[in-house]
Write a structure and sequence with these properties.
The chain is α/β, with parallel strands linked by helices. The protein is built from six helices and six strands. It has helices at residues 2-22, 45-57, 72-85, 97-105, 120-128, 163-168, and strands at residues 25-30, 65-68, 89-91, 111-115, 142-147, 153-158. Strands 3-2-4-1-5-6 form a six-stranded mixed beta sheet, with helices on both faces. The termini are far apart.
C-alpha cells in the first residue's frame, strides 16, 4: 500500500517537473548595425562589436539553438553567439512566422532568434500575446526575453554596449 502511494507521488512529481521543463525562454534581438542601406548589407564595424558583446552576454546562458533570417546582417549577428556556444545558425523565413513559432514553442531550453526591426516585435506578440512597440531604424540595443508557458511574460533589456564608445577609442 505504501509503495503504491510512493509511486503515485513520484508520478505526480514527474508530471509537475515535465510541465516546468516544457515552458522555457525565447530571446529575440534585432540584427546589429549594418554597413549601409543596400539590399543585403554586412554588419558595420560597430555591428560586429555589438554582435560580440551579445555573445559575451550569452556566455553563461544555456542555449539550445540560434535562429536567423537568411540575410548577412542577421546571420553575422547570430554567428557570434552560435560560435561561442558551439551551435550552428538555423535559418528561418521571416515571412513564415507561424512555422518559426511552432519550432520555438517546441523547445525545452532557451533559444535566440535574430530578426529585423519589423519582425522581432511581431514574433514577441505571436509568442506571448503581448503587443510590442515598433522598433525604429536606429534601435539596435533591445533584447527581448519571452517566457513561454501558461502565463507568458516579456522582459525588455537594453544592451549596455554603445557604439559611441567604440568610435571614441
Amino acid at each position: 500500500m505504501k509503495l503504491n502511494k510512493l509511486l503515485a507521488w513520484f508520478g505526480a512529481l514527474s508530471c509537475l517537473l515535465a510541465l516546468q521543463l516544457s515552458a522555457d525562454t525565447v530571446y529575440l534581438v534585432r540584427h546589429a548595425e549594418k554597413q549601409d542601406d543596400s539590399k543585403d548589407p554586412p554588419l558595420s564595424e560597430c555591428g560586429r562589436a555589438r554582435a560580440q558583446a551579445l555573445a559575451d552576454y550569452f556566455a553563461n546562458i544555456p542555449l539550445a539553438a540560434v535562429y536567423a533570417t537568411p540575410y548577412q546582417r542577421t546571420r553575422q549577428t547570430a554567428t557570434a553567439v552560435a560560435t561561442a556556444k558551439q551551435l550552428s545558425v538555423t535559418e528561418y523565413d521571416p515571412r513564415e512566422s507561424g512555422q518559426l513559432v511552432a519550432l520555438l514553442t517546441a523547445q525545452t531550453l532557451p533559444v535566440l532568434v535574430v530578426g529585423h526591426s519589423n519582425t522581432v516585435p511581431q514574433l514577441v506578440k505571436l509568442l506571448s500575446g503581448i503587443e510590442m512597440a515598433a522598433l525604429t531604424e536606429q534601435e539596435y540595443n533591445l533584447l527581448y526575453r519571452v517566457e513561454l508557458g501558461p502565463q507568458p511574460g516579456v522582459t525588455l533589456r537594453r544592451q549596455t554596449f554603445e557604439c559611441d564608445k567604440l568610435a571614441s577609442e
